[in-house]
Design goal:
- This protein is mainly beta.
- The protein has one helix and eight strands.
- Strands 1, 2, 3, 4, 5, 6, 7 and 8 form an eight-stranded mixed beta sheet that branches.
- It is globular.
């Protein structure tokens, strides 16, 4: 995979408590095809911003649930036997142990909430 299509996933927390997070500005500034930012910690979870176009590989998280919320675009959430199409303003929770894959036919922005022990690329 070349640099333009490679996943860019940052596990480093970008913002501390009481700092303003300008999500529309982060989305606009994102230039990579698949970019994932770890915005902040909330209790034992991490809030991540994904600006994506294309598909992620099949994976699962053995010990943590994962929540997805679509800001803009269209997110296909592939599960073993069904695909859910999430539009802006819609969310979806994938329980621990459930194999899944996300796909975005066009540039799509999403928020994800998952335990801070989650490996963002799957277990």
């Amino acid at each position: 995979m070349d640099d333009e299509t490679k996943y860019s996933i940052s596990a480093e927390i970008e913002y501390n408590p009481l700092e303003l997070i300008d999500i529309p500005n982060l989305i606009e500034a994102s230039k990579k095809k698949w970019q994932n930012f770890s915005l902040c910690e909330v209790n034992d979870c991490v809030v991540r911003l994904g600006v994506i176009h294309g598909e992620f590989h099949w994976h699962k998280h053995d010990h943590e649930d994962e929540f997805f919320y679509v800001i803009d675009g269209l997110l296909h959430m592939d599960l073993k036997d069904i695909t859910h199409d999430l539009k802006p303003g819609q969310g979806f929770m994938v329980p621990k142990g459930e194999p899944h894959r996300t796909r975005a036919p066009d540039r799509t922005s999403i928020l994800m909430v998952e335990g801070k022990t989650v490996t963002a690329t799957g277990d």
